[in-house]
C-alpha cells in the first residue's frame, strides 16, 4: 500500500484533522499487518473456533474467549490478538445461532434474540432468522469497527490528559455500572465485585513489594490469574450448577428449514433495524460503563414501537431479531474502545481480553497506541476482516453449527471440564492452580445458587489491582490528600456520574412506589421484555 | 392488575413472599460478613514498609473487607424483608426450581479430584480421559465404552495439538517415551 507523508507543518496535537489523518495511516499499516497470509490464517482459525465454541450451549462469549486462550499462548502478540479478534466476534455470532435454534433461553444478551428468533424458527423461517442475524451482525460489526477507528484516536487524546485520579474515577464508574445495571439486585452485584477484588488482592503488591493473602504458598505470589477465575466461575461453576439441577425435558433443536435467503420483504423489514440497532449499540457499548444487555433490550423495545407489524412481536417478527443482533454486535465493537484506548474493560469478556494483553506484558491505553501502533491497529484491521469472514463462512456453514447443538449434554460438559483443566494447568504447570480452579468453581456454584452475577467478580479480579494502582498513585501525587479526587474537575465529574448511576435505579423505584401509593398511577408490573 | 406471586418460587416469579426468613440467605449474609472480617484481620498482618505507610498495601484491602461486611449486613436485611431470589434462571440446561442433586455434584467432584491426582503422575492424556469419562457418567451418559473411546481420542488429540503443535508443556506421565 502506498504510504503518504502526512506530517503537517504545525504540531499535530493542535490540529483536529491530523488526528483523523494519523488514524487512517495507522489503519492502513494495520491492514498491511493483518493481510499477511499467516495472519489471515490465524484470523480464520479464530473465527471458526470462536463460532464453534460460541454455538455450544452453556458457553457464553466470555467463557469462549477464556477457554480458547490456551491456543494463543505461544503465538506472537500480533497473531494472538488477531486470533482474539476472530474469537471475540465469532463467539458472539455462535451465541445467536444457538438462541435462534434452541428452545431454551441461554445467556442474557442472547435472550432477546431468542424471543423472536425462536418463534421464527418454529414457523419455518429459521434460516431467515439466521440470515438476518448474520447480515445484521456484519453490518453492525463493520459500522461499529469504523466507529472504533474514528473514536479510538479521540479517546487516546483524551486519555493522555488523564492522570491517575481520573483513571481511578473511571474505574469506579465502571464498577458502579457493572453492579448497578446488571442482574437482579445491586447488593448481589456489589458482593460479586468485592469478592472479585478480594481475589485480585492475592499476591505481591507491586507498589510496596509486600505479599498479601498468600498464606505462605509460593504459587500464590503471582496472584490468581483472571482466566482461572473466569474459567472457574463460568465453566466449572456452571457445570456444577447444571449437575445439581439438570433439566429433564430434552431440548428441542428446531431444524433449519426454509430458504437460506430472506425474501425481499424480510430484507425491507430488516435493514432499518440493523442501522438503528447499530446506532444504539455502539455508543452504549463504548461508554466506560458495563452491560451488553441494555442496548439489546432497548433495540427490541424500539423496534416493537416502530414496527408496522407490532402484532407479530412475540410470534416471530424479524425486526426483533435484526435490531437486537445488530445492537449486540455494535456494542461488542464499542466495548473495545475503552478497553484499547483507556485499558478499561467494561464486560467480563473485555476483562479476559485485558488479561490476555497483560500476559504479553502489554498494557492497553494511550501509551500502547504510541509504542505499538501496529499491534493495536492490526487488531482493529483484523476486526474488519473477521467480520467479512464470518459473513461468508457462516451462512453456508449453518448446517454444521446446528449439528454441534446436537452434542449430548453429558459429553459437552465433560469436554468443557477437560478444556478447563488444560487451560489452567498449562498456565503454570502447577496443581495448586487446579485446586484454586476447583475452589473458585465451587464458589461459582454457590453464586449461581444465590443468583449472584458472575461478571462483576471477573471484572473485579482484574480491575481491582488497576484501581488500587491508580488510587495510590493519585494520592501520592496529592501528598496523601484524598480530596484530590473531588477537587480535580474531570475526576469529580466522573465520580458524580458514578454516584448517579448507583443511586438512580433505587431512587426511581422509590419514586414510582410513592406515586402508586398516592393512587396516581396503577401498579407497575416488573419490566420484562 | 396485580398478579399474586405463588408461595413457592417459579421461573416467572423468582422472589418468594416474606413468609419466613430464608436460612440460606442468612448463611450467605453471614459468610459475607465473616469473609470481610477475615480479610480485615489478614490485612493487619501485612507488613508495612516505612516509605509507603500512608497509602500503603493495607488501604484497599481494608476497604474491600469493610465493604464485604457492609454487603453482608445489607443481605441480612434483605433476607428479613423477604426479597430472596431463586437461583440463576438464565442457564440452558439447569432448571432452577429443582432441589440440589448432591449425588451428581459429588460424582463430578470425584472426577475433578481424580484429574488432580492423576495429571502429574499418569500424565495429561490419562488424566483427561478419566476426567472425561467420569464427568460424562455423572452428567447422565450411560455409554461408557463410547465415552472411554472418545475420551482417549480427545485427550490424545489435545495433547498432540497443544504440546507438539503449539509448544505448551503438558505432562506425559506414564506414557513418557511412548508418545
In short:
By secondary structure, chain A is mainly α.
SSE pattern of chain B, N- to C-terminal = HHHHH
Considering DSSP H and I runs of 4 or more, what fraction of the residues of chain B is helical? 55-70%
* Main pleated-sheet profile of chain A: 2 strands, antiparallel
Contiguous runs where pLDDT drops below 50 for at least 5 residues of chain A: 1-5, 7-16, 524-529
Q: Please indicate the count of domains of chain B.
A: 2
Specify the overall morphology of chain A. Answer: globular
Order of helices and strands of chain A: HHHHHHHEEHHHHHHHHHHHHH
Query: Using DSSP, what is the number of strands of chain A?
Result: 2
What is the CA-based Rg of chain B, rounded?
24 Å
Sequence of strands across the biggest β-sheet of chain A: 1-2
Oligomer: heterodimer
3D structure, described in words:
The complex is a heterodimer of chains A (about 525) and B (about 180). Chain A has helices at about 15-35, 35-55, 60-70, 75-100, 110-160, 165-180, 185-200, 225-245, 265-285, 295-305, 320-340, 350-360, 365-370, 375-395, 400-405, 410-430, 430-450, 455-475, 485, 490-515, and strands at about 205, 210. Chain A is mostly helical and about 525 residues long. In chain A, a hairpin with a 6-residue loop joins strand 1 and strand 2. Chain B has five helices and no strands. Chain B starts with about 20 loop residues before the first helix and ends in a 14-residue tail after the last helix. The model of chain B is unreliable at about 1-5 (pLDDT under 50). Chain B has about 180 residues and is mainly α. Classes of the chains: A mainly alpha (about 525), B mainly alpha (about 180). At the A-B interface, helix 7, strand 2, helix 8, helix 16 and helix 17 of A face helix 1, helix 2, helix 3, helix 4 and helix 5 of B.
List keywords for this structure.
heterodimer, A: mainly alpha, 72% helix, 1% strand, B: 179 residues, mainly alpha, 2 domains, disordered N terminus
Amino acid at each position: 500500500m502506498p504510504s503518504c507523508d502526512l506530517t503537517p507543518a504545525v504540531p499535530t496535537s493542535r490540529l483536529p484533522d491530523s488526528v483523523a489523518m494519523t488514524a487512517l495511516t495507522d489503519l492502513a499499516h494495520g491492514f498491511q499487518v493483518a493481510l499477511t497470509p499467516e495472519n489471515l490464517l490465524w484470523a480464520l482459525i479464530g473465527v471458526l473456533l470462536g463460532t464453534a465454541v460460541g454455538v455450544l450451549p452453556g458457553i457464553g462469549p466470555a467463557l469462549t474467549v477464556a477457554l480458547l486462550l490456551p491456543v494463543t499462548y505461544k503465538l506472537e502478540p500480533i497473531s494472538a490478538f488477531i486470533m482474539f479478534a476472530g474469537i471475540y466476534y465469532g463467539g458472539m455470532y455462535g451465541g445467536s445461532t444457538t438462541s435462534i435454534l434452541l428452545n431454551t433461553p441461554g445467556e442474557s444478551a442472547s435472550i432477546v434474540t431468542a424471543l423472536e428468533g425462536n418463534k421464527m424458527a418454529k414457523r419455518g423461517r429459521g434460516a431467515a432468522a439466521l440470515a438476518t442475524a448474520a447480515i445484521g451482525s456484519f453490518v453492525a460489526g463493520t459500522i461499529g469497527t469504523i466507529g472504533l477507528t474514528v473514536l479510538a484516536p479521540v479517546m487516546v487524546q483524551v486519555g493522555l490528559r488523564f492522570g491517575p485520579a481520573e483513571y481511578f474515577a473511571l474505574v469506579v464508574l465502571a464498577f458502579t455500572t457493572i453492579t448497578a445495571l446488571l442482574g437482579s439486585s445491586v447488593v448481589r452485584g456489589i458482593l460479586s465485585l468485592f469478592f472479585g477484588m478480594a481475589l485480585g488482592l492475592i499476591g505481591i503488591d507491586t507498589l510496596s513489594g509486600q505479599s498479601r493473602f498468600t498464606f505462605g504458598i509460593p504459587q500464590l505470589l503471582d496472584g490468581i490469574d483472571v482466566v482461572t477465575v473466569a474459567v472457574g466461575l463460568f465453566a466449572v461453576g456452571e457445570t456444577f450448577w447444571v449437575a445439581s439441577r439438570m433439566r429433564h425435558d430434552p431440548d428441542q433443536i428446531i431444524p433449519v428449514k426454509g430458504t437460506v435467503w430472506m425474501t425481499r420483504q424480510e430484507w425491507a423489514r430488516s435493514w432499518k433495524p440493523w442501522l438503528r440497532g447499530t446506532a444504539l449499540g455502539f455508543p452504549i457499548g463504548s461508554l466506560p460503563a458495563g452491560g451488553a444487555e441494555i442496548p439489546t433490550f432497548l433495540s427490541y423495545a424500539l423496534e416493537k414501537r416502530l414496527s408496522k407489524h407490532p402484532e407479530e412481536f412475540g410470534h416471530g417478527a424479524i425486526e426483533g431479531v435484526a435490531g437486537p443482533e445488530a445492537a449486540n454486535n455494535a456494542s461488542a465493537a464499542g466495548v473495545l474502545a475503552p478497553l484499547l484506548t483507556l485499558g478499561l474493560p467494561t464486560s467480563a469478556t473485555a476483562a479476559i481480553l485485558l488479561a490476555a494483553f497483560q500476559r504479553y506484558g502489554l498494557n492497553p491505553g494511550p501509551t500502547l497506541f504510541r509504542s505499538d501502533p501496529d499491534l493495536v491497529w492490526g487488531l482493529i484491521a483484523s476486526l474488519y476482516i473477521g467480520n467479512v469472514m464470518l459473513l461468508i463462512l457462516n451462512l453456508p456453514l449453518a448446517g454444521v453449527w446446528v449439528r454441534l447443538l446436537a452434542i449430548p449434554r453429558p459429553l459437552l460438559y465433560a469436554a468443557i471440564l477437560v478444556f478447563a483443566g488444560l487451560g489452567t494447568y498449562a498456565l503454570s504447570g502447577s496443581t495448586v492452580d487446579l485446586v484454586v480452579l476447583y475452589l473458585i468453581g465451587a464458589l461459582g456454584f454457590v453464586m449461581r445458587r444465590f443468583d449472584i452475577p458472575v461478571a462483576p467478580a471477573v471484572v473485579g479480579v482484574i480491575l481491582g489491582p488497576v484501581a488500587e494502582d491508580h488510587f495510590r498513585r493519585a494520592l501520592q501525587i496529592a501528598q496523601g490528600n484524598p480530596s484530590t479526587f473531588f477537587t480535580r474537575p474531570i475526576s469529580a465529574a466522573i465520580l458524580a456520574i458514578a454516584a448517579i448511576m448507583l443511586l438512580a435505579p433505587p431512587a426511581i423505584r422509590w419514586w414510582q412506589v410513592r406515586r402508586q401509593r398516592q393512587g396516581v398511577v396503577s401498579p407497575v408490573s416488573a419490566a420484562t421484555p | 392488575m396485580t398478579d399474586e406471586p405463588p408461595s413457592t418460587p417459579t421461573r416467572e416469579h423468582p422472589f418468594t413472599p416474606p413468609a419466613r426468613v430464608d436460612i440460606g440467605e442468612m448463611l450467605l449474609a453471614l459468610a459475607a460478613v465473616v469473609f470481610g472480617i477475615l480479610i480485615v484481620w489478614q490485612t493487619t498482618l501485612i507488613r508495612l514498609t516505612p516509605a509507603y505507610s500512608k497509602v500503603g498495601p493495607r488501604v484497599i484491602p481494608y476497604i474491600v473487607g469493610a465493604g464485604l461486611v457492609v454487603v453482608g449486613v445489607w443481605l441480612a436485611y434483605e433476607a428479613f424483608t423477604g426479597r430472596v431470589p431463586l437461583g440463576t434462571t438464565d442457564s440452558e440446561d439447569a432448571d432452577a426450581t429443582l432441589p440440589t442433586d448432591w449425588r451428581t455434584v459429588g460424582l463430578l467432584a470425584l472426577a475433578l479430584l481424580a484429574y488432580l491426582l492423576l495429571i502429574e503422575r499418569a500424565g495429561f492424556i490419562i488424566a483427561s480421559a478419566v476426567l472425561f469419562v467420569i464427568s460424562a457418567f455423572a452428567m447422565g451418559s450411560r455409554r461408557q465404552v463410547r465415552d472411554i473411546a472418545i475420551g482417549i481420542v480427545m485427550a490424545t488429540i489435545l495433547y498432540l495439538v497443544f504440546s507438539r503443535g503449539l509448544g505448551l508443556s503438558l505432562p506425559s506421565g506414564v506414557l513418557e517415551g511412548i508418545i
